[in-house]
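Hi V.,

You were right to ask for the full record rather than a summary. Here it is.
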Amino acid sequence: MTESITPVPPGPSVPRPTADTGGTSRSVAGMDEIRLARIALTWLVEPGNRAVFRLVGQFGPVDALRRLCAGDVTDQRLRTTVAARLAAGDPWQVAGTAAEVTERLGARLVTPEDNEWPAQVGHLERLTLAHAERRVDQETAPPLCLWVRGGWDLGEALERSVAVVGSRAATAYGQHVATGIGYGLADRGWTVVSGGAFGVDAAAHRGALNAGGRTVAVLACGVDRPYPVGNTALFDRIAEAGLLISEWLPGADPLRPRFLIRNRVIAAATAGTVLVEAAARSGATQTLRRALALNRPSMVVPGPVTSAMSVGAHELLREHPSARLVTGVPHILEEVGRIGADLAPPARGPARPEDDLDDESVLVLESAPRRGALGPEVLAARAGLDLRTALRKLSMLEQLGLLVRRDDGYALPEPGRRPAPGVPG
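Predicted structure:
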């Protein structure tokens, strides 16, 4: 049900930014009024708010901001939130300062009006989570704007991308698997997306970077706030070879609820999500639940049943039939790649010469004694074949190096001395 909103006549009810040059463009740091309004709205109300998203869709960012500041919305909780924020500052001034800081950082603001906006995040408009009681599970609307650090076109980088997420307290197994997946995906031209955290996230990012590929870190704080600080060098590498993106203004703190808010963007921006390791209460499982709700390919790497880091991942496999078990990059590409073109090869052991034998040849080979030798007549009888057929099969098995002809009959080759396939014994 849409909100009933009374039209507000135009007027300077909210202070507007002024042009640096005294002109009429109402811009700050090269940003127009619409972009500044999107920044102000993101500061005024935490990202993902559905009421704000609907306001922007109905009236545009500038009028939506003016209505919010005037208290002209029916949602009491939203009015209370906005009033509290307005007590902390003027949203237009905050937006202007953020625009200047963004420019100094060498970052940029990307909005839905831009060509590089990733259109797939708009699918969040229909995201509905079952049993959503917490606010972060209810407020899952698309972003109003994104801050970006890095030279790649945002839409291009995310067009062929896979999210790899998992536990911060990853085991050596989890880090090994995440590194291999990150490397393999990047090596095949896919962008690896994760959250920049310790453990699985960092391993996936490093795997992609080591392959010379692209990786994107979606942050729960400002793009100028490396968090965790221990990954500062990693974030610098990502900004050079890939992208750092965030919904929050530069300088924003990594507050706990923001990680869950951020996870919806990871799920929506990518072609599929892979969960490598997750404990029972891991936030990484929430990313996969959002991917499942969006009907995106949702994959889980199995772990040791004795590990606490496997509990959350395994429970998701049990609860959601649409979640797929994957063990490596070929399985992942089969889920997110082109239909019929990116199929994973069937799992097989090492090829052996006897794999291609016909049934009669197998009978003859299995009839050979473990020790000693037997003549053709005895082998034919043991195999239940006529002598002529047995002789033909014995000759072929000898050529393949699977049997050796001796003075007293045919025998298995000595261990470690089997001739190469196709070479007579």
